[in-house]
Design a protein that fits this description.
five-stranded parallel beta sheet; elongated; binds zinc ion
Length: about 280
Amino acid sequence: MAQLIAERDPLARHVRQLARHEALPHAAILSGTGDRLAAARFIAAALVCRGGDDRPCLRCAACRKAAEDIHPDVRVVRDEDKKELSVEAVRALRQDVYIRPNEAERKVYIFADSDQLNERDQNVLLKIVEEGPPYAAFLFCADTATALLPTIRSRCVELKLRGEDDQEPSEQALALCRVFAGGELLPAVQHLVSLENSRLKREQLQVLLEDAWRVAAEALLLASGKTPQPGPAGDAAAALSRGLSLPRLQKLTDCLRHYAAECRYNVGPGHVLGALCARWEEILA
Ligand SMILES: [Zn+2]
């Protein structure tokens, strides 16, 4: 399955905000460090989502199709051989854009690598971006915005990805890791119940579990001899690698990743937390 950017990514939050205000751009450049295509799919999902206010809901059929690259109104344009796009491809696109969307209100074109667009292509695209039908949206992925002509740039909003590495896990995630590091059932059950009672939203739980998963993955590296990073995240990872046997740590890491991903699609946070609790009991057994 194709990937979307993580909910914790500031760009994901920004996109949700824009969607809430009906302010998603019809032309954007996705630049910066990280998975730009995953970010573009996230925006495309927000554009075609039928889930209501919080877009992308990541639960409706449209979101799922966008995430899996099978939505008929979301097209990823690229040359698999990393060459320039052919003239024919760009011409075909110029006609395709005037065919109304199949299922969604919008039709989204994702240019996976703007380096594949030469000047001639870009001039053709400029016309479509400027004069194309209002339902069409264009997302250009590029190392830097300068891969595109100034004329195109001036029509686009630039959305930057910041790599995920410089993002510290939240205190909530560290607290959860410290509880797991204790290696006991009851404190973990109490902690998970208190999380459930805090009426966490699904997206917040996803961020929390992704963070906890990253700490657990770091703990696995520590267990195989890596030196801990200074700081609270490093301390929490060190506590996990000291507190749990290697098989338990591996199972915990897998299960955190699993339930973080579940949050993307699954039913309420209560269900995910309950399942996580049951899994923790199995890990300790
Ligand atoms: Zn949706």
